[in-house]
């Protein structure tokens, strides 16, 4: 990994910590953090969504809120739940993982190694 990539990842980690600390989540909800292209597309740094939500339904839920987001942004992003990367299943039957009340989800766009 080159210096630019490391800087970018450190910047995301710092921003993630600031958003995690600053935004309160109401009971029965989880926080979803947006970075780079995801933040630009939504015009937000974060959203608060109702929990529980199966991970397999996350992209569909975001697509309903932000038309076109799945193909333009989410298809190339990674997802973390509570700072742990998770695999996004192809359909709802492939995963039993559920985002729970109080969880923090992050949508992380690709890191350029230019």
TrEMBL record:
Pathway: Cofactor biosynthesis; molybdopterin biosynthesis
One record GO biological process: Mo-molybdopterin cofactor biosynthetic process
Principal localisation: cytoplasm
Spans traversing the lipid bilayer: 6-23
Residues annotated with Glycyl adenylate modification: 114
Keywords, comma-separated and alphabetical: Cytoplasm, Membrane, Molybdenum cofactor biosynthesis, Nucleotide-binding, Phosphoprotein, Transmembrane, Transmembrane helix
Pfam families associated with the record: ThiS
One cellular component term from this protein's GO annotations in UniProt: molybdopterin adenylyltransferase complex
Modification note: C-terminal thiocarboxylation occurs in 2 steps, it is first acyl-adenylated (-COAMP) via the hesA/moeB/thiF part of UBA4, then thiocarboxylated (-COSH) via the rhodanese domain of UBA4.
GO molecular function: molybdopterin synthase activity; nucleotide binding
Top-level taxon: Eukaryota
Protein's cellular compartments: Cytoplasm
Modified residues (1-thioglycine): 114
Family, as annotated: Belongs to the MoaD family. MOCS2A subfamily.
The protein's assembly and partners: Heterotetramer; composed of 2 small (MOCS2A) and 2 large (MOCS2B) subunits.
Free-text function comment from the UniProt entry: Acts as a sulfur carrier required for molybdopterin biosynthesis. Component of the molybdopterin synthase complex that catalyzes the conversion of precursor Z into molybdopterin by mediating the incorporation of 2 sulfur atoms into precursor Z to generate a dithiolene group. In the complex, serves as sulfur donor by being thiocarboxylated (-COSH) at its C-terminus by UBA4. After interaction with MOCS2B, the sulfur is then transferred to precursor Z to form molybdopterin.
Name assigned to this protein: Molybdopterin synthase sulfur carrier subunit
Gene (name only): cnxG
């Amino acid at each position: 990994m080159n210096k630019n990539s490391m800087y970018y990842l450190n910047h995301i980690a710092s921003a993630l910590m600031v958003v995690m600390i600053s935004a309160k989540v109401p009971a029965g909800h989880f926080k979803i953090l947006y970075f780079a292209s995801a933040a630009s597309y939504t015009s937000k740094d974060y959203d608060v969504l109702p929990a529980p939500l199966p991970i397999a339904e996350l992209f569909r839920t975001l697509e309903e809120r932000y038309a076109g987001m799945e193909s333009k942004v989410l298809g190339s992003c990674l997802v973390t739940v509570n700072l742990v990367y998770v695999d996004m299943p192809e359909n709802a039957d492939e995963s039993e993982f559920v985002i729970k009340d109080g969880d923090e989800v992050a949508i992380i766009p690709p890191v350029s190694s230019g």
